[in-house]
Amino acid sequence: MKLETNGVMTLKNINLLNNDFLAKITTLGQEVNVLQQTLGTATQDIGGLQQQINVINEELNRQTHFRGYYLLSTDIQNLPNSANRDFAFSAESGTVWMYDAAWYNSGDIVPDQVTPASDATPLADSGTGVAGTSNEYSRGDHKHPLQVSDVLSSKDTSVGTVGQASSYARSDHQNPTQTVDTIPVSDSADGSYGTVDSYARNDHSYPINVQTNDSIIPIVNGQLTYDGNVKATKFIKSGGLSTQLLLANGDTTTDFVTKATTQTITDSKTFNNYVTAAGYKIPNRTNQDMLMADGSTKPFTFAEQEFYITGSIEYIKLCMFGAYTTPTDVSVEFTCKCRTGFGLIYFNQVYTSDGIGTYQYKLQSNMSIGMDVCYIIYFGTCANRYGELWARVLMWSNKLIFQQTNQGMETEPLMDVLNNAMQSQLPSGASSSTALLANQFNSVVHISSSLNDN
Asked: What stretch of H or E contains 43?
């Protein structure tokens, strides 16, 4: 009988399989593998810890043998109780010094800070300045104490001074007012440049340097001459009156224009600007005269129009009497000027509450040419009725001028005065038309519907 490692038992060349024993052998093999893996990991951890211990030991040895920073190399050489492997940093040489039986300069540059940082408060600036002896450097965020003065600023002097203070004046400082609180002295005949070191205030005033008591003011009988301006509240001439004007040469006159009194100017005056007045009155003229721009006068006209008549008869509309229902009279006067005399037409239109009523007229024609007949023409009926006054002008009258020279008190219905071009015939569509003949002064005439066209 023989037992194999794989759990197979051979008995007289017959294989017997023990399944339980084989499973146990397999499990034991797996556990052995796990133990071997765990042992390998633990071995690696032990190696890492050993390396950290070595680093710590090296740092401890370094700190144990580091003797510090020193200003001078001789300070390192004189250190007591020096031992092999000791080292120190020299600010003088900027290198590492080592000890091996004796101190020597290794030539290695000092790591990190060659010069230590200063923890002292920076000094204030001085007047002359100091080179300094410290080998420590200032930190980047250091601040110097304020080097300003807390003493009140001095006043200015006439000669000035350099000063001895080593501090600065603050930007918001103010110097004391350099003014004097005494009243300025009066001017003197000889004058003086003065000795005070203060300024006069801008609202100062000098004492009056004249005699203010008129009872003791001296009277000058002669003539005084001044090259500059003379200013006074009044200039009074002996014996002068309030109605007189003092002239530049000392004389007086009453020949001047005033604003508050009535005066007559006997000569012409020229004004280079506008003259504004409530009214302008021309001697020996009436309210029927007009003042022209050149100073002349001409009879008053309300409207004017010029025409030129050649080889045909023409008709000219003088005005229109509008529809109107207020009882009143509207009167108007026209003249016609031409080379053969003066024509004239007076016309009075009566209005009632029903509209246009009766009329009256007087016509004076020109001589051989010009205006010879006028017409009153009505349009519409009742309250809407309106009338037009026309004049007929003979051919070859040439130049003539029609003017409205007068009108009555009521003018509201009067319209369209001398505002139209001449026509070759009278308008059509009239409800009535009447010819007004010359050299007659009619009694009251009632409007008829018949058309009398001459």
From this structure: helix 19-65
- Do 90 and 73 touch, CB atoms closer than 8 A? yes
Burial class (CB in 10 A: 0-12, 13-18, 19+), 164: exposed
- Name residue 449's amino acid: S
Burial of 425 (0-12, 13-18, 19+ CB in 10 A): exposed
Residue 411 has pLDDT above 70, yes or no: yes
Angle, CA of 105, 110 and 112, to the nearest 5°? 170
Residue 312's pLDDT is: 96
8 Å CB contact between 93 and 107: no
pLDDT for 310 equals 96
User: How far apart are alpha carbons 399 and 340 in whole angstroms?
Assistant: 11
Q: Which helix (H) or strand (E) holds 409?
A: none
pLDDT 10s digits, 42-96: 777 777 778 877 766 666 655 578 888 898 999 999 999 888 888 998 989 889 9
- Using a 10 angstrom Cβ sphere, with 0-12 exposed, 13-18 middle and 19 or more buried, the burial of residue 402 is buried
Sequence-distant (≥ 6) Cβ neighbours of residue 9 within 8 angstroms: 1, 2, 3, 15, 16, 17, 18
Contact between 86 and 96 under an 8 Å Cβ cutoff? The reply is no
Closest CA to 253 of 241, 263, 265: 241
Locate the domains of the chain by residue range. Answer: 14-64, 66-109, 298-452
Residue 69, H or E segment = strand 66-70
Write the burial class of residue 374 (CB in 10 Å: 0-12 exposed, 13-18 middle, 19+ buried): buried
Comparing 127 with 165, which gets the higher pLDDT? Answer: 165
Residues belonging to the chain:
454
Place 215 in a pLDDT band, splitting at 50, 70 and 90.
Answer: low
Residue keyed to tokens 């026509």: 423
Q: 317 falls in which pLDDT band (50, 70, 90)?
A: very high
- Residue 409: what pLDDT? 93
Predicted confidence band at 448 (pLDDT cuts at 50, 70, 90)?
A: very low
pLDDT digits (tens, 9 = 90+) for 363-375: 999 998 999 999 9
Q: What Å distances lie between residue 230 and 186, 207, 214, 245, 332, CA to CA?
A: 20, 19, 18, 18, 67
C-alpha 104, offset from chain centre: 83
- Burial status of residue 431 (CB atoms within 10 A of its CB: 0-12, 13-18, 19 or more): middle
Q: Which amino acid is at 161?
A: T
